[in-house]
Amino acid sequence: MKICISACGKDPDSEVDPQFGRCNYFVIIDPEIGSVTSIINPGSEASGGAGIRAAEAVVGAEVDTLLTGSVGPNAFSILSEAGIETHSGIKGTVAFALREYQSGKLALLENSNASTHSGMNKS
Amino acid sequence: MKIAIASGKGGTGKTTVAVNLALALEDVQLFDCDVEEPNCNLFLGFELEPVEEVTCLFPEINPDKCTLCGDCADFCRYNALAALPKKILLFPSLCHGCGGCSFVCPAGAIEEKSRSIGIIEKASSDTPLTFFHGILNIGEAMATLVIRSLQRHIDESRPAIIDSPPGTACPVLAVLGCADYCVLVTESTPFGFHDFLLALEVARALKVPVGVVLNRDGLGDSRVEDFCRAEGIPILLRIPNDRMIARLYSEGIPFVKEMPEWKEKFEEMFETIKALACKSTGVQ
Amino acid sequence: MRQLAIISGKGGCGKTTLTAAFSSLSENTVLADCDVDASDLPLILKPQVLKTEDCLGLELASIDLKLCTGCGICREICRFGAVLENFTINPYSCEGCAVCTVACPENAVSLMPRVSGQVISSITRFGPMAHAKLDTGEEASGKLVNVVRKRALELADRHSCKFILIDGPPGTGCPVIAAITGTDLVLVLSEPTVSGLHDLKRAIELTAHFRIPTVACINKYDINEKKSLEIEAFCREAGIPLLACLPYADITTEAMMEEETVIEYAAHSGDPGAVEFANIIRNLWGEIEMRLSDTS
Ligand code: SF4
Ligand code: SF4
Ligand code: SF4
Ligand code: SF4
Predict the structure, then answer these.
(1) Close Cβ partners of C67 (under 8 Å, ≥ 6 residues apart)
(2) CATH 3.30.70.20 is held by the domain B57-116
(3) Nearest CA, atom 2, ligand 1
(4) pLDDT number for residue C12
(5) At the N or C end, where does chain C have fewer CB atoms within 10 A?
(6) What is the tally of structural domains in chain A?
(7) Residue C108: φ, ψ to 5°
(8) Which CATH superfamily does the domain covering C2-56+119-294 fall into?
(9) What value of ipTM does the predicted structure carry?
(10) Could you tell me where the beta strands, DSSP code E, fall in A8-111?
């Protein structure tokens, strides 16, 4: 299973970047086989539509799960269309975010607006 | 003659000047081109009727013909298309309607449709003033399209007063680009002066003659005046820093209505502008 | 790192004055002036520039007249009227959509990078600051705002700062979204004018969408107490804490004339009105600092 984390740098020691669309890199980790790769986020340089470019790249990397901070509505519709599970609330390093996810501490986004406190409450 | 009322930044009293000037004169037209925040009618309170819908073309992809090659998404400079493994997704709010995707699609799978991005409204005929404004739908980016549609309703045979959007970006260029005269509204403070210089740069780049209205006069210093004197830019009007005016503003009442002495001052300003605009077109 | 963004529906309602005042009250803070259309904070904070970099905007078409045969296809296909009769490009109209480059049978059109402004890292008497300057006719973009925020983050790292204070752009468009995403708290500044409540509502819709904790503050509340009451009622209903009501005061302009923050001005002018005004802002900042430290 491939897990993708929005980050400032390329490796597991990098700080995470909670801004999905504008982060510099996506670090992609497959815990089962222990692989770590990274891709440059093409959205970080976009004038507009950054989240869309970013989501397209993440989908293209065939990941299963995304760990990040906030995702705008456009990017979220791409991620859900592609069946990628998005979890929010990351902080610290990439490795730390991964551990948090594995221990079930990161909330699953049900819609693009959802946060840890809002539950299923749509408004 | 088209007079644009502009300022480097919002909140300097641009709308106040536009509305009061229009109300002080007979037989003029007022166009609110600040389509992202059309506030003139908050002061006028006119009954409005729709005139036209402003549309923008956008692509529609025929899934039966699309081969998912991704060329369209690659081409789009505004990231309005996303190529996913099983589908091409369009994000209409980012689309500028350039037509590029349908041009490059090798499969002929894209057809262009039009969508509404805003509306033009006008005051119903029993109002004393010809008034039009445009509203850009929330979340839409193409303000310039709405402004251009709005400008097509200007009756060239009568004076038109145009409330320009604030700032120095595309929408402002669209308004100033077709104006015969530009009134810059500013305050003589460090902020006001700085923003004024930015707006002046735009007006000069477009070669539109400029005059200044000093708002909240008495506050601040003489830096705008000194500058204008040195540069030969006329000060057309001074609106004092007056609590009465501030209060009327906050209540949405144009102050010419409550303070009739201002009607004359605005009329005078208009005569000055007419003379100056004639002179400058004569010279050019 | 805690980030606060200060926004208002429209420009010119004291946002910069307030940001400047906060910067003189807060310790360990980096300023990010994202009001790039008309960046006024530098006028008060007098930044010493450390580093300037160009920020590229949308590209600009350019026709190689040696290759061009004057067939006119580009003029016809350009939806923005940017190709002039003599086959040069009007830079103010060109949106960099690139359609002309693919339509030209002679391959005579190419896209050139276009500088839309500069992003500047500086140091001020209250700490580091990131800001930007737009070129004439260029638009504030989400990208530019984002680069300013990135520079602010770097400065915060380098100077071990705890807070980032973002002076947001006006409106509710893409630049505003770029200014508030990922922040911990948004302060919406409102004014009791006809458009004030309407602007406030739109700003709050936006922060609600991103689920960012939001607080509000009314500037010049006493120029129209009735409208202020309406704003207050609206905030109560929407569950937005209204942290302060600032009176209409000439001190804001007087301080600006001295190129000082209201806090500095009050400290040496000794004018009781000014001191009182400064105290309201001090309390407001206290509230905000508490909430910022809380929102973890
Ligand atoms: S019309 Fe232009 S802007 Fe719209 S999706 Fe197609 S290429 Fe992109
Ligand atoms: S260019 Fe045409 S065929 Fe290719 S993905 Fe786009 S719509 Fe489909
Ligand atoms: S399409 Fe190419 S060859 Fe034709 S006029 Fe334009 S630039 Fe010249
Ligand atoms: S890039 Fe687009 S907007 Fe610019 S000239 Fe070419 S077709 Fe027109």
Answers:
(1) C106, C107, C108
(2) yes
(3) B98
(4) 59
(5) C
(6) 1
(7) -90, -10
(8) P-loop containing nucleotide triphosphate hydrolases (3.40.50.300)
(9) 0.77
(10) 25-30, 35-40, 65-68, 85-88, 107-108
Say yes or no to pLDDT of B222 above 80. Answer: yes
How confident is the prediction for chain C on average, in pLDDT? 88
Query: Can you read off the two tokens belonging to residue C210?
Result: 């991103």
**What's the CA gap between B156 and B145, in Å, rounded?**
20
SS (H, E, C) B219-276: ECCCHHHHHHHHHCCCEEEEEECCHHHHHHHHCCCCHHHHCCHHHHHHHHHHHHHHHH
Count the Cβ atoms, other than its own, within 10 Å of residue C213: 16
pLDDT exceeds 90 at position A48: no
pLDDT tens readout for residues C69-111: 999 999 999 998 899 999 999 888 898 999 999 999 999 999 9
* pTM exceeds 0.90 for this model: no
* Structure tokens belonging to residue B32: 């609110």
The answer for residues whose C-beta is within 8 angstroms of residue C72's C-beta and 6 or more apart is none
Residues enclosing ligand 2, CB less than 6 A? B 61, 66-72, 88, 105, 107, 109-110
State which residues form the domain around A18.
3-112
Give the residues across from B54 on adjacent strands: B118
From the list A47, A72, A117, which residue is nearest C57 (CB)? A47
Q: CB of B79 within 8 Å of any CB in chain A?
A: yes
Q: Does some domain include residue A56?
A: yes
d(CA C103, CA A46): 24
pLDDT of residue B171: 84
Question: For residue range B36-93, what is the model confidence (pLDDT) as tens digits?
Answer: 888 898 889 899 999 999 998 999 999 999 999 999 999 999 899 999 998 999 988 7
Comparing CA positions, the residue from C176, C127, C121 lying closest to residue C152 is C121
Which chain A residues are within 8 Å of C205, Cβ to Cβ? none
Over range A110-114, report the average pLDDT. 53
Pocket of ligand 1 (CB under 6 A): B 58-59, 75-76, 78, 80-81, 95-101; C 97
Q: What is chain B's alpha carbon radius of gyration, rounded to the nearest angstrom?
A: 22
What CATH number is given to the structural domain containing A28? Answer: 3.30.420.130
CATH of domain B2-46+127-281: 3.40.50.300
Q: Tell if the CB–CB gap between A56 and B91 is shorter than 8 Å.
A: no
Q: What is the pLDDT of residues A6-20, one digit of tens each?
A: 999 999 999 999 889
Position A74 in a domain: yes
